[in-house]
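I hope you will forgive my troubling you with a question about protein structure. I am sending you one protein, given as its amino acid sequence and as whole-number tokens for its backbone shapes. Thank you for your consideration; the sequence and its tokens are set out here:
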Amino acid sequence: MRIFEKHTDSELLALARTNVQGAFKEIYDRYAPKLFRYAHARINSREDCKELVNEVFESLWKSEKEIKVLSAFLYTILKFRIINFYEHKAVRKRFSTYMEWIGPETHSTEEESEIENLRSLINKSLKSLPARCQDAVRLRIDRELSLDEIAKQMNVNNGTVKQYLTIAMRYFRKVHTPIYRIK
């Protein structure tokens, strides 16, 4: 039998916030499988689901809010992480489609000039980002590496790579909104 098994969620949360060893682990053990199943019913990738669940617990750990119902808090955070996951996936797809559109093909001189201007604009935008974000974007777009491959190459975890790409995509959306509307 686990030490904190009979504690309520509120008690566990209070203990975890006072850094009582094992309390946060009990919350994780209690909710991680349920949250994983919830995420997996909506996202087919086991790896992405694990990452989202870990992000939920990271949010819980960092949260300073008063949490009245722990399960509601966790599921709400997960729901919004899933929504963000799909939004980012759509943006990445549009960006990838856009990059393919300006890729190496035969174009008229006018099209080539426009494409070169857009490439220049994107490269200038990349230079505005932190170096690690630039590296992650280039590995993802230019070399078409997966998150795992980028993480290994950059010697960071998947969550960090996702964070770099998220920062870049938010910046691109903010600065180049009209570009992302190209279908």
